[in-house]
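[Meeting: bench + compute handoff]

Bench side (C.D.) handed over the final construct sequence. Compute side (W.E.) agreed to return the predicted structure before the next meeting so the bench team could plan truncations. Sequence as handed over:
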Amino acid sequence: MKVFMLGWEFPPFISGGLGTACHGLTKSLSNLGIKITFVLPKPIETSHSTHVEMLTPAHYRPDQIGEEFIETTGELKNIRFHTIQSPLHPYTTPEEYQKRLEEIIQQKKLLSVESRQVFDQWLKKEFEGGHVEPAGHYGGDMYSEVHRYAAAAVRLALQQPDFDVVHAHDWMTYPAGIAVATVTGKPLVVHVHSTEFDRSGEHVNQMIYDIERRGMHAASKVIAVSYLTRNIILTRYGVLGEKVEVIYNGVEHEENNRLSAQQVGIRSDEKIVLFLGRITMQKGPEYFLMAARKVLEEIENVKFVMAGTGDMMHRIIEMAAQMGIGHKVLFTGFLRGDDVNKVYQMADLYVMPSVSEPFGIAPLEALNHDVPVLISKQSGVAEVLTHVLKVDFWDIQEMANKIVAVLKYPPLQMTLREHGNFEVRKLKWSGAAARCVQVYQDLVPAMK
């Protein structure tokens, strides 16, 4: 089985759980013998990619100008990476954008007459007018970048059409998935790690919603990371239930030792409560701070660590200062690799107060590091975890009560650690990969 996979991020270039999920899933698919061509919008730098052994990453084929081809061995031996060389630059004029499209259209000579007609229809629908507007709160002309990525993916698929399934992760890759499936006739699987309703609440970006809806309806199968997400897909996007499969995420299991908090300037007698994630509306950082203030009214020796960055970062810093707890809240910025492991190892409790969380990989990582977990009931991971504390994201008093209980009563903390760590060991990426393979196998005979 060969899969043409489209993803917007992959370690070490990640901004959240999407990159972590892509890494865990592809690694396990590779172990099952699935051969994957993974198309990324950014180059993987050898100096930072300790998880992948690169072979001749600088070799280019004449017909692949603009893309980097990377073969891997070891744990990702069945995966080939194609990366679009250099960051994606938005097209500021219709003329520049049209020039790029004309390059792609030249690839039609590789297609049959019927496929050319289908390709023409897709190009007209997706690129008519040449110029597109910026994607609102995502910054820059993200929409142009998404479509440039789609055009590059089509060219790569035409050069190497020997695959069985197209697998696209999240909305940024849906136009590419639709395009590749259209010109090759291969089945499309879209993987929904998050929806615009999760990210923006009721104030959705209409353009992004339209892309998501078009991708879900064009797909042969839709994979949701939880039943919470599946329900959103059915009710908000109008997708038939028989088309949507739920496949939970997993976690990489590692043995870790506890780290001394004194190494980063935290006193040995201070407890550490951790928030790790994007500091955005979706993740509920303001609820974390409001609960923190209530906790500090009862317990003095606590530090609240907020690891991550996002569009609410400055607002949250100001909020902590206005509350008078700025000296009790540490902002680390975005963390990756060993720094993530260290902050987990120091924590006495991990809190995820998300307003709407499709799944939530971070609680699994926390449990894997023997850290007790408190999560919002509005999260997909709440469906699969029993030995964690749960609270409505808006119930600040109850959130504070449960934080205090964990910090004050060591037996509760120990019970959550032991049972939680045992429970999380059942959630493996190998299981998610096996479910994905079943989805592929169900589709390929039907398409043939």
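W.E. noted at the follow-up: The longest strand covers residues 67-73. C.D. will use this when planning the next construct.
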